């Protein structure tokens, strides 16, 4: 296959960065950098690398993603998700590249009870949510050729996520108590990788909600994981958010409607349950053998 595009991936060793790298490596000319290899806050080195490579697209997967810790480490979080995003966007602009930034359902306050579209007003409840909203704004301001994908409740085979946490807990306990009053859309990293590639190939710009579709609670999500993998003797019990206090406030309802993807006829994000079954069936042996 001809490789038409040069694509730089930043934060290339994270959960999503690794998935996107694995999905694109045989399709396009990919230059992936881990945090260690290239810190997005190192403006001079970032500029040097982008000037050398002259990519067509820069995919920014780097982020500060510790939602609770961000409440204490506000500056660190905002630096990476906001200032880093600005540097990457502007330097991509300077070399004529499209910039891709990933944002989150946590930019919304969760006061709605129907899925959020791209036209709903954000109102983040946490430092992390705020930093990602600022990151969106600065990405957009510094490069007209921008693509923002808002995603939610991410899981996949690379990195740490809720699916792996549940499987680890299921090894240690007979009863798992999981929050049942926060609703969202679990989203498979492979589906995001496929969707972002479609958007890049079609040279789309703007903000797109890009989550797996449908909605669930963390409790139902955990129950489906246990059921699909046929794990015996583990009971999943529902609890309220108040019974599992966390430092950062999270939205009660942060389901994303891929409104624009659907209107433009380019939505390839599956229903969350179908994607989850596909993921668990594909990686069953690894997941059941793996320990964090
Ligand atoms: N995870 C979710 O549920 C979720 C939900 C919605 C949106 N998102 C968004 O999706 C994107 C990918 O998330 P993810 O789950 O893949 O996160 P992740 O696994 O935490 O990956 C983020 C990567 O960024 C790297 N990084 C941190 N600071 C950096 C810096 N200054 N320069 C370069 N790299 C840096 C991290 O490296 P170190 O680990 O070495 O610091 C890590 O490899 C992020 O934008 C995130 O906000 C995630």
Automatic annotation (TrEMBL):
Pathway: Carbohydrate biosynthesis; dTDP-L-rhamnose biosynthesis
Record flagged with keyword Acetylation: no
GO-annotated biological processes: dTDP-rhamnose biosynthetic process
Domain annotation RmlD-like substrate binding: ranges: 5-283
Function: Catalyzes the reduction of dTDP-6-deoxy-L-lyxo-4-hexulose to yield dTDP-L-rhamnose.
Family stated for the protein in its record: Belongs to the dTDP-4-dehydrorhamnose reductase family.
Name recorded for this polypeptide: dTDP-4-dehydrorhamnose reductase
Organism: Dictyoglomus thermophilum (strain ATCC 35947 / DSM 3960 / H-6-12)
Name of encoding gene: rfbD_1
